[in-house]
Amino acid sequence: MAAPLIYISFPGTAREALNFYAQVFGGELSLYTCEQFGRNDGPPDAIAHGMLTGPVALAGSDAAPGEPSLHTEGIMLSLLGTDEPAVLQEWFDKLSVGGTDIDPLALRSWGDWDGQVTDRYGLRWLIGYQIGE
Known about the structure:
Layout: E1 6-10, H1 14-25, E2 28-33, E3 47-53, E4 58-62, E5 77-80, H2 85-96, E6 100-107, E7 112-118, E8 124-130
Parallel strand pairs: 1-4, 5-8
Antiparallel strand pairs: 2-3, 3-4, 6-7, 7-8
């Protein structure tokens, strides 16, 4: 079963944001400009399409003038149990830099670890894991 790919329209920060996510999660990042795609609906160096592949896949571009850009409310990107606890802790810490810890990554009363952070680009993440039984 295929999973949805998160595609983000950034307000002119796609290059910076996608590089940030590549530093957080690792993987391979491909960036293509409007000029490379022969597009004239934005500056030649604007990102027309970017794709991060690896442990976490994200895609995005710079929003064209007049098009809406990233604004989220009532949605989180969940990484619950998607990797080893040490890796998830590292991702949480890196996403927190320049962002806002909504709820620290901590042991919960039900026995699992989880936390929420909004990163510097406005994406809210839910990260957590279970410790082996």
